Amino acid sequence: MWFGIQQSLSRLVLLTSLVLIFLLGLGSWSIPPATASIRQMEEAPGQILVQSRHTLRDETGNSWQVVLFKRIKVNDATSINLRLVGFPGAAKFAHPQPLTIITETGTILNSKDMFAEKSPAANVGQYDFKNALNKLPTAASVRLFPVMSDPQPIELKIPPEVILEWQIVAASN
């Protein structure tokens, strides 16, 4: 009799453990909700800044801060720029060089270097992205190729959800 009770308790503990593992596993396999990282702020009276920030890794594993921002001024002048920030000491932009953008279909676009005169730091690049953004696909990734002082080329792959977020920033008023 004692053996039967012990066997039943063992099965109950095993079954409970399996159910708990299954339920905990469901939480780790679920897809987290998508969150956009779009920020809007008033820089000065009548001047609004809307930006999308992401941290992405290049093909060598180095982290990059990728910031697309739209500046809206009182006189309806707008600019859309893409700023790339690499790790200090590990990235040094070769100014003034355009940013090359290649889509999955092989279309090549270029964006003008905004820091041709003077960069705030060697690891910061900024590009006029207004014309290029309109030509980017929203359902496919693109690759960015900034020109660096180091002969080692840099490639940043931008996923389609980031490009879609950029389109939202561009459309904002």
Helix count, DSSP H or I runs of 4 or more residues? 3
**Low-confidence regions:** 28-35
Structural category: alpha+beta
**Rg (CA only):** 24 Å
Query: In angstroms, what separates the terminal alpha carbons?
Result: 77 Å
Largest sheet: 5 strands, antiparallel
Instruction: Quote the average pLDDT.
Output: 86
Strand content: 25-35%
Q: Please write the string of helix (H) and strand (E) elements.
A: HEEEEEEEHEEH
Q: How many domains, as an integer? A: 2
Based on Cα principal axes, name the global outline. elongated
Strand order of the largest sheet: 1-2-3-4-7
Percent range of helical residues: 25-40%
Count of β-strands: 9
Summary?
The chain is α+β, with helices and mostly antiparallel strands. The chain contains 3 helices and 9 strands. It has helices at residues 2-29, 130-133, 160-171, and strands at residues 38-44, 47-57, 63-72, 78-86, 99-103, 108-111, 124-128, 142-145, 156-158.
Q: What is the element layout, followed by pairings?
A:
Blueprint: H1 2-29, E1 38-44, E2 47-57, E3 63-72, E4 78-86, E5 99-103, E6 108-111, E7 124-128, H2 130-133, E8 142-145, E9 156-158, H3 160-171
Features:
single chain, 173 residues, alpha+beta, five-stranded antiparallel beta sheet, four-stranded antiparallel beta sheet
